[in-house]
Amino acid sequence: MRKTFLPTLIIVASVILILRLFYLQVIDDTLKIKSENNAIKIKYDFPERGYIYDRYGKLLVANQPSYDIMVVPNEIKRIDTLEFCSILDITKKEFIEKIEKAKIYSPRLPSLFLAQLNKMEFAAFQEKIRKYNGFYIQKRSLREYQGKFGANVFGFITQVNDKIIDKNPYYKSGDLIGRQGVEEAYEEILRGRKGVKYILKDKHNKEIGSYKEGKFDTISQQGSDITLSIDGALQQYGEELMVNKRGGIVAIEPKTGEILALVTAPSYDPAVLVGRQRSKNYTKLYNDSIAKPLFDRGLLAEYPPGSPFKILTGLVGLQENVVTPETSFMCHHGFSYGRGAFMKCHCPGGVIKLHNGIYKSCNAYFANVYKRTIEKYNKPKDGVDQWYKHMKSFGLGQFLGYDLPPGRKGHIPSSKFYDHYYPNGGWRSSTIISNSIGQGEVLMTPIQLANMMAIVANKGYYYTPHVIKKIKGHQIDSKYTTRHYTTVNSRHFEPVINGLFDVYNMGTAAGLGVEGLEICGKTGTAENFTKLNGKRVKLQDHSIFVAFAPRHNPKIAIAVFVENGYWGNRWAGPIATLMIEKYINKKITRTDLEKRMLEGNLNGEYAKLYPKKGDSFLPLLTYSKQDSLRLNLTKPKDSVKKNK
């Protein structure tokens, strides 16, 4: 046995090697293309990207022709460099740098030399292209936008980098890829598939026909069209309302989870990221560290939610049976929770129940409910963790799973979080009472706030928010049609909804209503701090508003967040009302609100954020979760104010 093992192994290995060589050399011709690269020219046929439509079939994003100059370094012969550079308006230094970069990629394969020529530039170069061996024109398509809105929703297309090429063999030097928004999320569907042609060349480098009679050629396949859930008119209107303001608007259809509008402000015209100036314009937008136009506040900004969070405090209190809709507490313009510790409240005071606690936005009522919720359990740790589970069921403190690339979790503190900051123990319900009114250590993104209101509108369930409505030739991912239920029983939502309805009738949003339209809403005002020269400085509060409408059979749930916008009914409330009326009635009757919002300007408030000469400036609460949590944990509790 041992004598025959080695000869047998050698024979088997030899047979496998011979068969493999036979397959590669006789049967499989694909490697032959690579070995004959000097005699074969590869041409790509780039398809049009899929068109993008809004929920009503209105075209939002189309295509326009573009022309790239490609180069094969080994094929370059004597050319008039100065004339070449003059035609394309580039310097000789740029010419040399681009050629060197192409050589690094491959001296024998085509790579991008100059991208996105317009028609005039293409015509000028096309006239003399015969004089420039090694260069040729590659036709592509670029995006053409039908309006100056939706940049954060659409995203943009840009050239692939070396990292992408190494990771995905589909992409070659000079190829385009979707970045941000739906362009990135649905890249493989929108891009289609490029075609490839192998052209045989003679010894004089002239094309003499298809290689192997086109055996290896492939036909390009156009990208699939997609229909978004976005209402184009509503999206545009929202961006107009947010001019000269900073913040976000997210509107969702409760019964489907479809995102109707996703506004971030300030934004930019998506057309500025098309053409030869794309890179320059992107750099300018990227380097704007003050206004942050590339920062999608609707998805990424983590804010203290303020009074809208009281909705959840009330629902959890009902679910935990620590209160009923008839349970009452006395409000003496605030809530005392320890020696010298007082949470102020600016509601009229008196006997407060759930109903008027919501529409009056009473801090004292919800502080009592939260205190009872935590103290229901023997240990604060167990109470907080139970509260934490309820919050998780509303999609808080985690990624919602929507179909756009960027996202933030927000923050819902657990007992582990407090154990970390209080390693010696000693924390209890009064230590963290600010959570009850959406301050404390709680952070939410605008899309989480909008989804919260969709859950209330649905009385306990939601669909994962998404912007895709239909894909030509494809099915929508089933995760967007799957219901997610909260831990709060559906029967507890009706008394809360009644209170939200009266926010417009007799509460903090009185005067913002629309005749004939039943809106349920909640105002919010969140404290806003920064550090200036090492000192904690209070800036103007953030204005927040959440709502859904109509009261019965809701069609839209919305969250509006206006940075440094004072109280909730000053900026966010009117904007939410106008967005709701625009969507449901398709027209605006509250022209008084519209005029004030369109003409409103908060740049004076934002100017206070700019560092003066000699100042050391670090904004904290607006975007940084870690810094905001640190501030909340160390701030004196009696500084907590009324959230209107």
TrEMBL record:
Membrane topology reported for the UniProt record: Single-pass membrane protein
The organism's place on the tree of life at top rank: Bacteria
Domain Penicillin-binding protein dimerisation: residue ranges: 47-209
EC id: 3.4.16.4
Localization of this protein: Cell membrane; Membrane
Record field: transmembrane: none
Pfam families xref list: PBP_dimer (PF03717), Transpeptidase (PF00905)
Annotated Penicillin-binding protein transpeptidase domain residues: 247-576
Keywords from the named record: Carboxypeptidase, Cell inner membrane, Cell membrane, Cell shape, Cell wall biogenesis/degradation, Hydrolase, Membrane, Peptidoglycan synthesis, Protease, Transmembrane, Transmembrane helix
InterPro entries cross-referenced by the UniProt entry: Beta-lactam/transpept (IPR050515), Beta-lactam/transpept-like (IPR012338), PBP_dimer (IPR005311), PBP_dimer_sf (IPR036138), PCN-bd_Tpept (IPR001460), Penicillin-binding_protein_2 (IPR017790)
Top-tier EC class: hydrolase
Gene Ontology molecular function terms on file: serine-type D-Ala-D-Ala carboxypeptidase activity
SUPFAM superfamilies listed in its UniProt record: beta-lactamase/transpeptidase-like, Penicillin binding protein dimerisation domain
Protein name, as recorded: Penicillin-binding protein 2
Organism this protein belongs to: Flavobacterium nakdongensis
